[in-house]
Specification:
With 210 residues, this protein is α+β, with helices and mostly antiparallel strands. The chain has a domain of 138 residues: Aminopeptidase (3-Layer(aba) Sandwich), CATH 3.40.630. The chain is built from five helices and nine strands, in the order E-E-E-H-H-E-E-H-E-H-E-H-E-E. Strands 3-4-5-6-7-9-8 form a seven-stranded mixed sheet, sandwiched between helices. The chain has a two-stranded antiparallel ribbon with strand order 1-2. Strand 8 and strand 9 form a beta hairpin.
């Protein structure tokens, strides 16, 4: 969900980089005034302006991303080689997620590979840029976004993985409720003098879609 750092993987790995790992999917009770059923579709270039606006709301309410990017539209566009999706509710963007192939600088793909003999890190897909508008929480938006990204990864024959910071307990609860499995806990150097604890998750095993 962030820039991809360089470094050693493992339960005590220290990885350099300015990272925005947690997902803003905090639980909130549904608002009875919202009646439209959220719908999901592919993100287009025309959606980026509205996505940036919603990301700004999330940043102000939750601090995600921790390091606000100089070019937020470019930041959203990166890491979406396998796709990017938005959920719309009440005629507005309510959430966003993207999917990219696992690379050598991602932590979760390496952990997933280490947990299975003969599994290559490049057989993973990394979920990122996952956030839900504060006004739309408690309506299943996060689960809808994750489900679509997992579906696309399966179609590509890849295993979905992600990283999340330890302070984002709501996101971890959502992942585990959806069957995601914690694989490892690592230490990442966020900025000089600041280290954070990160949990690596893998989606439940599944047969790649035809």
């Amino acid at each position: 969900m962030t820039e991809r750092p360089h470094g050693r993987r493992g339960n005590s790995a220290a990885v350099a980089g300015k990272l925005c790992l947690h997902s803003a999917v905090t639980h909130r009770s549904p608002d009875a005034t919202h009646t439209a059923v959220p719908s999901i579709r592919d993100r287009t270039g025309e959606d980026l302006e509205e996505c940036v606006r919603v990301l700004g709301e999330v940043h102000r309410s939750d601090g995600y991303p921790v390091n606000w990017p100089e070019d937020p539209a470019g930041w959203l566009s990166r890491g979406s080689e396998l796709g990017a999706w938005i959920v719309e509710a009440d005629g507005r963007v309510a959430g966003h997620v993207s999917l990219a192939p696992g690379g050598p600088d991602d932590v979760a793909p390496g952990v997933w590979s280490e947990h299975g003999a003969g599994r290559a890190p490049d057989r993973t897909a990394v979920l990122g840029r996952l956030f839900v508008a504060p006004r739309a929480r408690g309506r299943g938006v996060g689960a809808l976004l994750i489900g679509r990204a997992v579906e696309r990864a399966r179609h590509a024959g890849l295993h979905p993985v992600l990283d999340v910071v330890s302070t984002d307990t709501a996101a971890m609860a959502l992942y585990e409720r959806l069957g995601w499995q914690p694989m490892a806990t690592v230490q990442r150097q966020w900025t000089p003098g600041r280290t954070v604890t990160v949990h690596c998750y893998g989606a439940p095993p599944g047969v790649p879609a035809p």
